[in-house]
Amino acid sequence: MKPKNWQRTEVLFHEAMGLSAEERAVYLAKVCVDDASLRREVESLIAAFENKREFMERPAFSLGMKVLAEEPEKESLVGKQIGSYQIQVLLGRGGMGEVYLAQDDRLDRKVALKFLSHPFTDDAWAKRQLKKEAQAIGRLDHPNICVVHDFEEHDGYNFIVMQYIEGETLASLIRNGTFPSEKISHLAIQIVSALIEAHSHGIIHRDIKPQNIMVTATGQVKVLDFGLAKHVQQKPDALNMAESESAKLGLVVGTIAYMSPEQLRSERLDYRSDIFSFGIVLYEMISCSTHIQPGLTSIVQKCLQRDRELRYQSASELLLDLDNPPEVARLSPRRPARYQIRNYVAAVLLLLLVLAILMVYLKPSRIQTLAVLPIVNKSKDANAEILSKGLTEGITNRLSSLSKLKVKAPTVIPAYEDDQEAQRRILSDFNVQAVLFGTLTTENEALALEVKLVDSADGLPIWEDKYIIAPGELLSLQSDLAYKLASKLHLSLSEDEKRLLFARPTENEEACRMYFYGRYYWNDRNKENIKKAINFFDRAVKLDPYYAKAYAGLADSYVLLSAVTFGRPISTREAMNNAKWAANKAIEIDDTLAEAHTSKAVYLLKYEWDWQAAEKEFKRAIELNPEYSPAHFWYSRLLGLKGREDEAIRESEIAWDLEPFAPPSIMNVGLAYYYSRHYDKAIEYCRMNLERNPDHLATLNVLGLAYLQKGMLQDSIKVFQKLYAADNFYGAAPLGFAYGRAGRKSEALEILDKLSKEPDIPPQEKALIYIGLGEKERAYALLQQACSDKFATFPFLMMEPFLDSIRTDPGIIELVKCAKLSS
């Protein structure tokens, strides 16, 4: 259905629902006389509503207008050969997927293949969801979770290759009443064990129901269909929370009859949402039995508490009670226990149905997730480009202080002017309910800011306005606009939040402009621009010595000066001492500034090598502003350095989710997989990034290293040659290393000779070439010097996979200890 038809369809649906069947037919024939497709859409919506059992059991995605307007199903895949798979039988269809039984010709085995349903085959978002599902299950290794063998692409098809499970769904067993009541605990324990495994890997299933649970002939449970699963950040000190993605189609995700109350309200979810869904499943299991095992009724009731604080707080806690059911008081003899609990759950389900109808068919009045895009400069003012970036940051920072709003603030987006496909991609890829667009223009020789708030579900404007930027009003403009947006988003603000919206990081407008200039050059950093950034940040703090954000900018800049990429204009010690002073100054002025804590954490990571203190600062930054992408970006690096590979990948994915179009964010995911020795995944992300950003040098470096570890030596050399051609200083060491590995000694020595002529060359760069040449002793001596110099990337070199073959050498062992990485 086209977005423009939705509002009319919704009106006609509500009008028709108030009429009898005969009146309804006459009414629709009259109002849809010139639009037969519109009438079919309304009648289809009415039919879905009136078929209550189907309505209750269909995933909420499939209730959306997209599916109601879908084309007829294409012909079955049965009988086709796709890759090495011979498709045999359609096993099931639902939501966005179709599952087929296939014969794997390579390994001579039966497998289950999950494809996207016809309406979604060309949908980029749906393809990503399918891949995310494969990735989610691929991380899990548990006997009660269906095994994913691979994710493949052949002949234009994307599909998951899964373990084929022979058995029945739990839904079928419940419907037929074909399992003894004494088996209920046995099955329930297996389901909860699967949830414990998923939750321990930061995954909320979000669609636990009997249809997604298989039971084999031997009674083994297999939990299926992680298509709606959500990855969340794991926090040891708090329950994990995940933002709902309901804005994707303007709907809640999951299956209505099994959703928790918070899931229906599109609130942030935690693992207790799955516990509520399991409670409904357990209720259905015991309701078809003639005898209820003692204690199970109280377990169901605790799972189904409307207030999640009163439910089981973890799947592990739930498992303890299933292993040893609590004693409960005898229920009233006037009615069997199964009827008492059935009435209880029926009331809950009725409430859920009412809430679901409201959520699905009525648009939410309050926006909870927002993306603020970089303001586009269309003015004739050469300096307005810098001003546009600064205004974006100022508005974003104020909105990020609101507890009821999750804000994403990408610094990089694709050009979307006059490109509807790019706009559609932006609205869909950020997984938010609304997007704020902004444009700077020139009007009567003054700058004007035009803003537009757009609903992601239908692409229609929620609010538009224009502001003339008068001299001296730069600071007040940011506050006024943020407050107006909060009002248009229907957010109720506390007095503290109102104060934060109007708080000013500085009262000096010229200092604010200097900070904008500094951040502009820092975001576009290279050897020259990083010096300009330092100059502008320094001017900002001289104009206002209490400008915390400007000190944080100084720290961010100085911490990079020791890197080869930026030419090392000053010594590592001087650069890092300056970074430490600036970060501490920022925190001293404003301890609630996420940027300041991130700056200090990066300094501790790169120079002090104090991993515990760095992690504490990263966690503090994320606590203060969970949507601050640099904190997640650098925290993932620390986690990778400490060998906490799964956590590192999750943090890198969070940073990428916040900055989906930024080349460093995509590269960082590839790097996290590289350090975890998943080279194919690293190559996949690097290639994806280079398709979009072919000149991103850091991505070329990671790709070349991943090729090396895969044994693709010639491919690696070609990549490093491209890197070297783009930047001799940056690409010299990896290319010389690869030449050495390939036995091209003369070429490696030539690179080494040129590198040695560079002023103030870090010893680590030459050491890398010596490692490639197999001259370990010379390499170790240079690396000892790098460690003594506290060269920022030295600890990361110690974790490099290409050192694995010599990791037991006494020289490497000493170097690892020097980097404070020994256990």
How would you summarize the topology of this molecule?
Layout (H helix, E strand, L loop, with lengths): L2 H15 L3 H11 L4 H15 L1 H6 L7 H4 L12 E2 L2 E10 L2 E8 L4 E8 L7 H15 L9 E7 L2 E7 L3 E3 H7 L7 H17 L2 E2 L8 E4 L4 E3 L6 E2 L29 H4 L7 H16 L8 H8 L11 H9 L13 H25 L7 E4 L3 E2 L6 H17 L5 E3 L11 H10 L4 E10 L2 E10 L5 E9 L4 H15 L6 H8 L6 H15 L5 H15 L4 H11 L13 H18 L4 H15 L2 H14 L4 H13 L3 H14 L4 H13 L3 H14 L4 H13 L3 H14 L1 H14 L3 H12 L6 H11 L2 H13 L5 H5 L11 H9 L5
Helix pairs in contact: 1-3, 8-10, 8-12, 10-11, 10-13, 14-16, 14-18, 18-19, 18-20, 19-20, 20-21, 20-22, 21-22, 22-23, 22-24, 23-24, 24-25, 24-26, 25-26, 26-27, 26-28, 27-28, 28-29, 29-30, 30-31, 30-32, 31-32, 32-33, 33-35
Lateral arrangement of strands in the main beta sheet: 1-2-3-4-6-5
Count the E strands.
17
Percent helix: 40-55%
The CA-CA distance between the termini, in Å, is 58 Å
Strand content: 5-15%
Average of per-residue pLDDT values:
80
Which value, in Å, is the CA radius of gyration? Answer: 29 Å
Q: Which class of secondary structure composition applies to the elements?
A: alpha+beta
Major sheet summary line: 6 strands, antiparallel
